[in-house]
Amino acid sequence: MPNKKNARTRHTSVSQRRQVTIIEVAEAAGVSIATVSRVMSGSPSVRSELVERVRRAADELGYRPNPAAQRLASGVGDTIGVVVPNLANPYFYDVIKAMNIAAATEGYQMLIADANEDPDEEFDLSTNLLRQVDGLVLVSPRMPAASLRRLAQENVHIVLVNRVAVGVGLPTVAVDNYSAMVEICGHLARLGHRRVVYLAGPELSWQNVERQRAVEQAEAFGLEVQTVPAGASIDTGHAAVDRALELKPTALVSFNDLVAFGALARLQELGVRVPDDVSLTGFDDIPFAAYVSPSLTTANSPQRVLGQRAWQVLHQMMSGAEVDDTPLVKAEVVIRGSTAAPTSSTPDRLPSRPAAGSAAPSVH
Amino acid sequence: MPNKKNARTRHTSVSQRRQVTIIEVAEAAGVSIATVSRVMSGSPSVRSELVERVRRAADELGYRPNPAAQRLASGVGDTIGVVVPNLANPYFYDVIKAMNIAAATEGYQMLIADANEDPDEEFDLSTNLLRQVDGLVLVSPRMPAASLRRLAQENVHIVLVNRVAVGVGLPTVAVDNYSAMVEICGHLARLGHRRVVYLAGPELSWQNVERQRAVEQAEAFGLEVQTVPAGASIDTGHAAVDRALELKPTALVSFNDLVAFGALARLQELGVRVPDDVSLTGFDDIPFAAYVSPSLTTANSPQRVLGQRAWQVLHQMMSGAEVDDTPLVKAEVVIRGSTAAPTSSTPDRLPSRPAAGSAAPSVH
DNA sequence: CTGTTAGCGCCTTCAA
DNA sequence: TTGAAGGCGCTAACAG
C-alpha cells in the first residue's frame, strides 16, 4: 500500500464526506443491515414494501457498497486481470477492447498490466494480480511453460490467448498462425519469389515460433528461407532491414505488421522500392495496414473474436461451467499492394544515399 | 458481484489450496500477527531476528497479503482508475502506457474503463470506479461540466487529461491544441490555400472545441473556413469526405489523425490526389502518421508527457502534497507530405469512378 | 520492540 | 420473510 490517506489540496475545497455505510442505510430505512444487503443483491425474498423503503433510503444517502468489503466478506469480486506484453501494440488493444466490452456487459471490470516484453515481469505481475482478481487473461505470454504451470496451480481461473502451452493444462484461445503464414509463403512462391528473409519476432513468443515454423516449412515450396532477428515493434523492423538486405532477398516476410512498417520505412529511406524491388508482408492486419503505402499484404488475425472468446472461456470457468476447448481461430490472408512478382533486375547493389528527402518517414 | 465461487473444470485438476492468511504465518514464525503485519509493511521497529523468521515463514508458506483486506482495514489501496473514451484510439495508448509505467514504478496498478464515446457511460464508469480506487484519471472526458463537478465532490482524487473545465476545480493536464492548430492553419495559408474545410471531431470534446476555435480564428489569415462534422475515428473521416468536397476546398483540416486517415482513404477511392488536388492535415501524430502515404502533416501531441504528468499530479494529490497547476503542453507541428501549395487547376468536377483499383484501401 | 484487541464494511448462516 | 451475530484478513491504536 504505497498510499497515505487524507490528502488536501487547493483543488479539493468541498468537505470530503465519509463513505456511506450499510448501517446508515439500514437505520434510515428502519430495517436490519441484512435486509439492506439482501435488497442490494436483489434477493427475491424481501417484502416489496421493504425493498422500496431500502431503495429509497439508499439512493437518498447516495449509498454504494464498498467493493473491498464485499470481496472480503464474500470471497468473490467483479474484476478480471489482463497481462499483455506491450500496451503500445495496437494488436493487443483490439483484443483487450473486445474482452473489455464483453466483460463489462456482465458487470466485470478490467485490471491491466503491461509486462514491457519482459517474461519475468510477466510472471510477477501475474502472481500479483492473482490475489485480487477473479480471473486472469494472459495475452501472448512469453514466460516459460514452467512459470505458466506454477500459475495454473493457483486458486484463480486463467486463460491463455495466443500461446499454446502443452502440458500446462490452461485453456487456450489462439489464432492459427501456422496455416496463415504458410499461405502467405505460398502466395509469394506463386508470384515467383525464391529468396525470402523472415524478420523474426520475439524468440519466446509462441506466435513467432509458429510463424517461423511455417516460413521454414515453405522451403518445401522451393523457397530459400533465411532468418534475421527483429522483434515485435516498428523500430526493431527498421533496424533489421540492413542485415536482411545483405542476404539479397526478393521478399521480406515480417513477424507482424509493426515490424513490416519499420521495415517499409527503412526500405524507403534506402530507396528500395516496395514491391518493385522487394516484396513485403506483415501479420495481424492492424487497422493501419490498409493505410500505409503500399498497403500491406498481411494476415487478418481476428482480434475481436479472440477477445470475445477469451472472455467467454474465462466466464465459463468462473461460473463453474465445463469449458469447451476452443479450436484455433482461422486467420485470413489479405493480399494488398506490398507484394508483387519479383522483377528480373533485383538490385545487386543498393543506392548509397542513406535517406531520401522529405518524403522519408522518420522513425522515433 | 456477478460471481459465484467454487468453480471446477477439467482444467483445474490440482486441489485448490485456500489462501494463506497472516495468522498461519504468525504461528509458523512464533510471533503475533501484528508483527507479521509490521514485517510485511517494512516497519523498521522490528528486531531483525524476527524479521528474518517472519520472512522465512512467509515465503515458505507462499503468503501474500489479501489486498481486499488490506484496503478495508487501512482505507487505502494501490490502484488507480483510468477512463478513456475509446480504447481503440491509438492516441490514448501512449498516454495510458506512460501513465501505467509511471504508476507501476511506485507500486500502483491500473483499472481501465472504456466509455465507448458515450458521455453517460463515462460518468457511470467514473462513479463506479470511484469506490475502489485511490485516484482517477479521466482522459479526454466528454461528459458535461456538471457531471465533472459532481465527481469533483467525491472523496477521491481526480485529474483531467485534455479537458479544461473552468469552475470545476479539478487539476488538469492538457495539450495546447489551440496554438498548434493555428500554426497548422498558418502553414496552409502560407502555402496559398484559401478555402479550407474542417473535419470536426466529437462535439463534446474539449479538444475539438479548441481546435475548431483555432481553425475559425484562422479566417483572420484570409482563410475561408467551413466545417463538416466527422468524429474521432477512421470511418467518420471516411464518411465526411464527400460532403466536404462539395464545398470545393483546397485543403482538409482534420480533427485528428484517424479522421485524416479515413479521409485519405476516401480521397484515394475518389481518385482525388493528395496533396496535388487537395492538402490534408491531421492532429496528434500517432505513430502511424509517418507511415501512410503521403505521410501526414500533423501536430505532435506529446502523449507520453501527458501520461507522465497526469500520474505525477495524481500522485501528488494522493500523497497530500500541494498540486502544481501545470501549464499547457506544447504541441509541435510536423510538416510532411500531405500538404502542398494548391494547384491552379483545382478539380471542379470529380472523377466519377467510385473507387480506384486494388490500390484503394478498404475501410472496415 | 512486541502482543492484544478493536474495528474496516459487508455477507451469510442460523434462528426466530 | 427478517434480524442477530460471527467472521472475511488485515491494520492500527494502545498497552505492556
From TrEMBL, chains A, B:
Residues 339-364 are annotated as: Disordered. The keyword DNA-binding applies. Keywords: DNA-binding, Transcription, Transcription regulation. Residues 352-364 have a biased composition (Low complexity). SMART domains: HTH_LACI. Pfam families: LacI (PF00356), Peripla_BP_3 (PF13377). CDD domains: HTH_LacI (cd01392), PBP1_LacI_sugar_binding-like (cd06267). InterPro entries: HTH_LacI, LacI/GalR-like_sensor, Lambda_DNA-bd_dom_sf, Peripla_BP_I. Residues 20-74 form the HTH lacI-type domain. This is LacI family transcriptional regulator. It comes from Planosporangium thailandense.
